[in-house]
Amino acid sequence: MYNKEKLMQTLHDIKDEAAAIAPYVIVAQPRRSKESPQAQLLDGHLGLHIDFTGFSRGYVESTNLAVDAARNYLIQCALETEGAEYLFFVGDDTVSPWDAFKVLHKTSQENPDAVVAGVYYIKLSDAMVMVRNNNSIKVANVDPGQVFEAWQTGMDCMLIPIRILRKMYEEEPELPFCCIANGIKDIPFIGEDNFFVHRLRKHGFRLLVNTDVQCLHMDVYTGKYTAHPNVDLNNYYTKIPITERLTMRDKKRIDSIWAVSTEKVTENLRREHY
Fold first, then answer.
1. Which phi and psi angles does 75 have, rounded to 5°?
2. Tens digits of per-residue pLDDT, 15-31?
3. DSSP 94
4. CATH assignment at residue 142
5. 107 with 56: CB under 8 angstroms?
6. Among candidate residues 73, 78, 68, 95, the one with its CA nearest the CA of residue 22
7. What residues make up the domain containing 20?
8. How many C-beta atoms surround the C-beta of residue 9 within 10 A?
9. Which of 17, 148, 241, 256 has its CA 20 to 30 A from that of 3?
10. DSSP alpha helices (H): ranges in the chain?
11. Other CB atoms within 10 A of residue 230 CB
């Protein structure tokens, strides 16, 4: 007959032992609000929608912050987590394939001087992956089976070695990692991802894309998405049922939702600071 007290003590010992282990990768998600739906389950112990099996993992999210402030906050959380080796940004409306982390991780291990991103599309538009062609910029060919250096990508499926973030911080501690410029005289619109990638290059690191990580960019209210033409929907787990591709008929509704969301974030920030 088993000893119940000893069994429970052993279970508590295992729990305490696990709590002392550092996360190898921190999954970071900027969220528009606590109430807004998430495309995938990325926090918890069971039923995760991306495969992290065998890797210790942490999760951190932000809500009701402008996207540049959200990314800076999440990066700071990663830097303050002792022992963490990677930060994995996943957008709350970005659906990554089951093997996304492990594919990006393998590429990162083979290219220690680089940040590695997967492919996701601007809703109802092209892939958010640009390459430099002589002195011009164009949308990259993102057909699967490639690893190449990009000029610019979004950050919503991006694996970043913590040591790269630490080096950037140590060399320029007075600069944020991300910043959005909008409405500044003599400065064009600059997105937070543009700002981060510029800083990355300045510090001598590369931005690589692995096109075997093909994401869906989902409208979380309908399950409609934009993605590569040949994407296999069997490769994805989601909290929201995947329905069909987004069409131009959806654009006005999507634009109005995000306009309202942006106004709410702006109003929250105004209340906090004034």
1. -65, -40
2. 999 889 999 999 999 99
3. E
4. 3.90.550.40
5. no
6. 78
7. 4-249
8. 11
9. 17
10. 4-19, 67-79, 100-110, 162-171, 192-202, 248-273
11. 8
